[in-house]
Design goal:
It is a single chain. The protein is α/β, with parallel strands linked by helices. 41% of the residues lie in helices and 24% in strands. The strands form 4 sheets. A 7-stranded mixed beta sheet has the order 6-5-14-15-16-13-17. Strands 8-2-1-12-19-18 form a 6-stranded mixed beta sheet, with helices on both faces. The longest helix is centred in the last third of the chain and has 33 residues, at 340-372. The chain starts with a strand and ends with a helix.
């Protein structure tokens, strides 16, 4: 067993998976978490309790040997069910490949599995209610406040990982201490989110389609709903904070809340008996993208997961990207055993470009989900893409498929090629060169040629 101590700040999804993998490899691991043990206390507070689990995350948990324990917690979602303002719906499949889907899973249930598996190992311990205040980079000492005792504690370790989310204490320490030229950006959307619910029907039945991600797109705002194992749905409203006809600031009375939902989401409103109570009780969450550089300091500390690259939730990749961090990190841990400086350098060289790409993709997908999924041009594009993926499963991949179902395709590649391909598609449809009845061999040829032209143009213009 490797005796050098590894400290992980944060027992969230990425921190727990990282701890499990390191302990499996024989390292002496200590995890410190600011919150109470989520397995014993409800800490959701109406925020972020549902996740979309897909292939990149599945790969990471397969490597950890726990995928079977996780898949039993999942509900497959085969596509988007779009709801218009007149209560009509249409289904948009995520892929033309029949076996491809994403999965709805509870954040708390998934985190509990990871922590339970981690704590089975004798060389790993998790300490709760220990909040990291700062990290002394020179001495590699983390300073904690123990909420149980009210005392301050210091922990020295050979390696310190910051898996402490978007508000990372390690990242703040790297920024403030000026031991390294540290770049940091944080961009907020003008929208916030509020979590609501559809309760289950009789005997745990689902009151609307179970195997879909539901979307009510309304231009400048939208509602989404994901299924839960107990028959309920977690419903999330994305709405401007203020300065709009409909905003969180404007919806300041039960009457206005009721009128808004009844007018804009009539079929959803019928399934929300607790709407007013939940709307007034649950907080408004912020939506932001974090980018920073470097991720590491002198082979002694490393930022991972949301601490390094928080993203907005609209590609369903926040958790999957954080899990993939662990996959990529272990590629280098296995390649350069115990050479942490080399491991961290190589990891960051690969990961930074992909983390930035998924951050940009997630913001793009916000506009697609909010504005475009009900657009006739977009609907034609999705139908042709579905047919292409069905006819050419080994040749054609939509941008969504590249991101969601192909962990061997890097996010940065999906961003560059996928955007060029989307542009090619929309140009060909708008110019009436292709439609849903065009021969698929011809469609594939034209889309590939046009995509390559756009990539070459972007390269010439130094955009890629």
């Amino acid at each position: 067993m490797k005796q050098e101590k590894i400290l992980i700040i944060g027992s969230g999804l990425s921190g727990s998976l990282l701890a499990l993998r390191l302990a499996q490899k024989g390292y002496n691991v200590e995890v410190r978490e600011a919150r109470k043990d989520l397995r014993k206390a409800d800490i959701s507070a109406g925020k972020s309790i549902n996740l979309a689990f897909s292939d990149r995350g599945i790969k990471a948990l397969t490597e950890a040997g726990i995928i079977d324990k996780v898949m039993s917690l999942c509900i497959p979602m085969k596509g988007r069910l779009i709801h218009d303002i007149n209560e009509n719906t249409f289904f948009s499949s995520y892929s033309g490949r029949g076996d491809k889907h994403i999965n709805s899973i509870s954040r708390g249930d998934l985190n509990a599995v990871l922590m339970n598996e981690a704590e089975k190992l004798p060389n790993l311990k998790i300490i709760f209610e220990n909040e990291c205040k700062k990290v002394n980079l020179k001495k590699n000492v983390a300073h904690f406040y123990n909420h149980k005792t009210g005392k301050k504690e210091q922990v020295k370790a050979r390696i310190i990982f910051g898996a402490d989310g978007a508000g990372s204490a390690l990242r703040k320490s790297m920024f403030k201490q000026r031991e390294v030229l540290f770049s940091f950006s944080q961009q907020w959307l003008k929208h916030g989110y509020k979590e609501l619910s559809f309760p289950a029907g009789d005997n745990g039945s689902f009151l609307t389609e179970k195997n879909a991600l539901h979307i009510w797109p309304r231009g400048t705002y939208m509602l989404i709903a994901l299924p839960n194992l107990d028959g309920s749905f977690t419903v999330t409203l994305f709405l401007p904070y203020q300065d709009a006809k409909y905003s969180f600031k404007a919806l300041n009375s039960p009457k206005k809340i009721k009128e808004f939902f009844k007018e804009q989401f009539p079929d959803a409103y019928k399934l929300m008996p607790n709407l007013i109570e939940e709307f007034q009780k649950n907080p408004v969450g912020a939506l932001g993208t974090i980018k920073c550089s470097p991720y590491s300091y002198k082979g002694k500390t490393l930022l991972i997961g949301d601490a390094a690259h928080a993203v907005v939730p609209f590609y369903g990749q926040g958790m999957n990207a954080s899990f993939e961090d662990v996959t990529i990190l272990f590629k280098y841990i296995n390649k350069y055993p115990n050479n942490w400086k080399k491991i961290f350098k190589e990891y960051e060289n690969e990961r930074k470009i992909d983390a930035d790409a998924i951050g940009d993709l997630a913001v793009e997908n916000f506009h697609e989900m909010r504005d475009h999924v009900a657009n006739p041009l977009f609907k034609i594009k999705r139908e042709i893409e579905r047919k292409l993926e069905e006819a050419f499963p080994n040749t054609y991949f939509s941008k969504y498929s590249m991101v969601t179902f192909n962990p061997d395709i890097r996010y940065s590649q999906a961003f560059t090629v996928g955007n060029a391909q989307d542009k090619a598609f929309l140009n060909l449809i708008e110019d009436e060169v292709i439609d849903t009845e065009t021969d698929l061999d011809l469609v594939l040829k034209l889309v590939q040629e046009k995509t390559q032209e756009i990539l070459e143009e972007d390269k010439t213009a130094h955009l890629v």
